[in-house]
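Demo today. Your pick:
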Amino acid sequence: MSAGYGIMRGVTRRLMLLDTASLYFRAYFGVPDSVRAPDGTPVNAVRGLLDFIARLVQDHRPDDLVACMDFDWRPGWRVELIPTYKAHRVAEEAPEGEGVDQEEVPDTLSPQVPVIDAVLDAVGIARVGAADHEADDVIGTLADRATGPVDIVTGDRDLFQLVDDGRRARVLYPVKGVGTLLLVDEAALREKYGVDGPGYADLALLRGDPSDGLPGVPGIGEKTAAKLLAAHGDLAGIMAAVDDPASKLTPSQRKRLDEARAYVAVAPKVVRVARDVPLPAFDPALPHRPRDPRALGELEERWGLGGSLRRLLSTLEG
């Protein structure tokens, strides 16, 4: 990000980072599509996301809030390393060198995304993305540069890798809406998975993730991956053990890991979020009043945002 992100004012400001697409997908599936605009267009994802944000602000009182966006949900540099990466979610491939593959999205959700963008902009909530990068990479970059505590709100377990008690970075993982959130810190990770934040990235790499098209190491499931990491420290330690005849790997583990060397060599760059993405200067401060009241009024009337928008604005004013 540009040096302009000195806007993070002091070490006591709490930053909230939204994995925006993750949240509006949850809103879409959690709010009935009978929630519609005056012309009958579904706005369940729009209103659901506004309600989510209002509840998050009310319950956690961040000083700064950034809606992190997927400017490229399937970056070519990740696909080049692992061609199966998110391949099952591609609805339409873009011609080579001509933009971004189209993600398979429900027909009634796609038209709501530009409305979400316009409403967030009119309210004045910072909305930030980066060319050739996913929202995860934006979140990783902002979390790394934050000087105060960070709350990452996501329904994607991949971001557990950013949990860091020393940096006061935690994940708020929606269990049911955003009214019920699982607070994921290092203690929660160790209890559930036996790893810390960086260890979670290695665990996910070894285990694989069908939802992201990551094959993992055949025969190495979550429990085995956790045991290997506990015994050898990290991925590099595990692979060093493969080459050490005296290590305590079982013959089958040694064989599977040895055969997966090509995957293990490239997977870290795919699985680990980027921490150094160039981002534009912006003001992350949570607004107390709309940035563009006229535009917001037109959006409210056009899309029938009603109580959801009023609740958000009332919460921000408070």
